[in-house]
Structures are given as C-alpha cells and as structure tokens.
Amino acid sequence: MLFPTLTFAVFFLLVYPISWWLRWRQRPWKLFILAVSYIFYGFWDWRFVFLIIASTLVNGGLAYQIARDAETRRKTTLQLALVFNLGLLCVFKYYGFFIESMNGLLRATGLPARLPFLEIILPVGISFFTFQAISYVVDVYRKTIPPAPILDVGVYLAFFPHVVAGPIVRAVELLPQLPHPKPLSSEDASRAALLIAQGMFKKVVISSYVASAIVDPVFAVPGQYSGLEVLMAIYGYAVQIYCDFSGYTDIAIGVALLLGIRFPQNFDRPYTAVSIQDFWRRWHMTLSRWLRDFLYIPLGGNRGGRWQTYRNLLLTMTLGGLWHGAAMTFVAWGFYHGLGLAVERWWGEMRVARAPHGAKLAHDPAPWQVWLGRLLTFHFVCIGWVLFRAPSFDTALEVLRGAVTNWGPAPNVTAGLVLAILGALALQFIPDSLSQRLAVNYARLPLVVQGAALGVFFALTVALGPKGVAPFIYFQF
Q: CB neighbours of 16 closer than 8 A, spacing ≥ 6?
C-alpha cells in the first residue's frame, strides 16, 4: 500500500478516528494498531505478515531471556538473536547475491559453477524492521531499556507508518510512547498536515518528474545521450532520491504524529553539507546513528588508533552499502563513502599536525570555504549516487564517462527540468526557523481555511503529478 494513493487515504480515514477513540485504552489500542499494521503490510503480499510475526515472537522472547539470564549467559542469548535476524536478511535478501558471486568465482577459477540458485521474493521493508529488531535486543542487552510485553514489541516492529521504508526508529524512542498517550495539539496536527503535504509534493511531483524526464532514460542507455544530458541525469538522480526518500519519511512522520506518536527526524537539508561527515549527519540520520551505535562503536570506533579508525570507517560504510542492496555496486558505493570519510579524517589530522606549535585552526571558516566545501561534498555525493543507481559497473562507468565527453545538442535538458532540479536544491537552504514559523502561522488559521488550503495543494499535486505512483525507491531495501 503506497502513501500517495486513494487506497491509503481511505485506509487512514478509517484508522484515524478509531485509533483516537481507543487511544486511552492501552490494550485495545495496541491490538487495533497491530491489526491494521498487518493489513497495511500484507496488502503487498499477505504471506510475509507471518515473517514479521515470527520476528516479533523470536526477538520478544529472546529479549526477555536476555533480561533473565545470568551475566555469563546473556551474551550467548544475544548472539542467538543476532544470528536469527541476520539469518533472515541472508536468506531473503542476500542468498541470490551470494550464490551468483560464488558461481562467478568458480567460473573464474575454471571450476564448474553448480551452486543452486533459487528465486526468493524479497519481503518489502525487511531491512528496516530487522534493524529495528536488532536495536531492540541489543538495547535490552545493554540495559538501556527493559524488555517490553510481546504486544508492544509487535506494535514497535510493525507500526505501519515506518514498517516498509523507515525511518529506523529505536525501541527507546517508540516503546515509552505506547503506554503514555498525549492529546493531539492543534500545532502538532498542523505540523503533521504540512509534513504530509510537502512529502506528497516531493514524491508525486518532483521525484516522479525528474525520474521520467531525464534519470530513467539516461541510466537505461547512457551512450545515446549527450554529455550535458548525462550530467543533468546525475544531478537529477541526486534530487530524485532525496525527494523520494525524504518525501516518504515526511509522510511517515506526519501520519505517525496524527496518531500521537513522534518519530525522530531523518533528513536535515543534506545537500547543504560542508563535508562528507556532515552529509552523513544530515542524510538518513536514523541509519547513520544505527551504524554508529551498533557497528562502528562495537568495532572499536576511534579508540584503537589512526589506522584502526580508518579500517572501522571502511568496514562500517561498506556493510552499510551492502544493507542497501544485494549487489556489488551497493558494496562499492558504501566503500566509496567509507574511503571518503577516512581520507577526510586523515586530512583533518594532517592539518592539525602541520599547524605551528601552539597555534589553533580557525573554527569559523570564511564564507568561500563553506561554499567550496558544499560544492565539493555535493559532487562527491553525486558521483557516489551513480554507483547507487546504475544496474552494473559498466553502466556506472559509461555514465561517468558520458558526463565529460560526447558534448552536443541536449534536447532533453528543458527549462522545466533545470528549474525543478535547481529549485529542489535551493529549497534546502531555507532556514529551519522559516519553516517553523510557517507551521506556527498555519496552525493559527481557522480550521476551514487550513482544510481549504490543503485541498487546493493536494489538487495541485495530483494535477502536476503523473498517472499512477511508482513505488518509493527505498521499498526495495
């Protein structure tokens, strides 16, 4: 079930009033939310509802066991939980990738490639609810939170606003909200409405338009397009994936807020970043924090010396790339960002080491340095997006080569396309204070005016958008 569809609108119009009618009766509300979440998830393929139920029962039970175990056995139970969760990912997401890679290796060495290949359907959202399950059992192991009742664990993992494409909400962020409902204020309702509206516009209008106008055609056959068209496709994909994914999370955060649940922020104007590290503090923030807390720090973080830190950055980002998809292009994308973070860290350390003794580096860079950092970071990220989007290394190399060669007429680079790309990038530089002021002023309008404004905006979104809505990019992860 896709957010920007009539089906979801009808679904939510039925869920919303019943949810608030039950909200102060904890058990009925949780049972209702769990049931509608399973309906939402099963709308794509009902068979995989049993998978998320199994994840709930196993992780809920093992978390309770971790809390009861003696100190000498707690780690073993945690390892069992990790094996189960990572096993789900390996079977459903990485089995084909592993078999193809091993058969390729066997062929390269002259041996017969006979490892069996099975067609396994990838359950939508498996990466998201599995990472959330891992964070839950690890937080129980670390005694950050106590084990929750199995019904609460079920709601946490299956809650329909985030189950298929995030954000990755930690148990410590969501579970405490379940037994303590808060009334929906007019400010929260207005903020939720604005989040849903802007998320719809990002996905339905900007992302869909840029994808069909330049990105999809160019990445399908890059050799048939001029250098300028290929370059615009690269910039266009940077806009497309941001508007697509941040649009989804805007809607998810808004829908959850209307139900009285607050999600963490997932994007913070990432293309205004002045460094690669700054980009990862702004892009898919819940994943960045997850990788930091459950992978980078357990690997040793920056505690083991310079080279160990570089190694940990490379491992963390490479595995983060593999999380995004079972293909070597995703692994290369993760390694590319890990290498960039390591080089950036090394450069910073060298600057400090080369500074005169007793001198301090300037903490407030000049404006030209800030904008240079933004320009370099944006283009570093765009090159990485080519690996992320391309179906193969050959296509990625053809796209990168085509962006600097084959200059000629560019009939697909229209004024509307340039305006959409530049406009989407320019909007990232609007201060947060202005957005907050807009939400406050909107909340002060009469309810009828708010509804009329939203109606006009949604009508405009539908008019500008294409027929039908493509699935969100992150559904495949």
A: 258, 259
